[in-house]
User: What shape does this take?
Amino acid sequence: MRVLITGGAGFIGSHLCDAFVSKGNDVTILDNLSTGSESNIAHLKGIIKVNQGDIRNKDLVEKLISGSDLVLHMAAALGVNKILNNPIDSISTNFFGSEIVLNAANKFDKRIVIASTSEIYGKSKDQPINEGSDRIIGTPQKLRWTYSDAKALEEAMAHALFLTQGLKVTTLRFFNTVGPRQTGKYGMVIPRLIGSAVRNEPLEVFGSGLQTRVFCHVLDAVQAVISILEVQNTIGEVFNVGGKGEISILDLARLIKEITYSKSSIVNIDYQNAYPAGYEDMMRRVPDISKIKEFTGWEPKILLKDSI
Assistant: This one.
């Protein structure tokens, strides 16, 4: 099978490359390397086809999709810091880029999986959050929500194409995903805290640290993608992909300190000193993953402490 992975040099995308190459597929990637890295796919040199380019390049996208059997659309501008520092370009990438990819998949009648995000749900207090939960989004001046809005429009476009033109699309809403190749550069909490811990530097916990999250290992997330492709009734559906085991960020810092035998202290940092203007947080984000388990049997297997 010929597989195109947009964002294939990224964190999740590169692990998808590994998985599909290992199954004997012909893998091609498209990545502008803005958040992805050549080091993530260096071990696949000569095995996969690499195209450095932008998903907003319509001609390039159509050329690559027309020659593929399956499209895994993982490319996005993501990471809180990147969104806050480059909101206009991030909106353009996440909406207009995805519009080009979706329309090309529809034009050439290709099976496509799109990566959405738990940011879709915003500040929803409906926890655990299921796929039908309402979105509660902050004011547009809180720029972190531009990511949520752009991805929501991407999802809406995908669903509209499914309903009106039969696009063979499945949407996956990834919650906090962790593992090898993830960088703390864009604000991802676990690699950031681990980096500080192994250097015995203070572990910076933003806000009170009582906000909670649930983490899923990237290899489990990859298996979720594979599982939805193995059954036809996932077409037209949206699924949460997340881990198990809610933990506060303060307890996460303590766990990382314990596992790494770090001498680091734990310090609380005000949000206004941690992020550029336009940031807003939510106290809980817990995925309900019962739907994907019902459809495919998938559930995460790797524990948080093993991920760390």
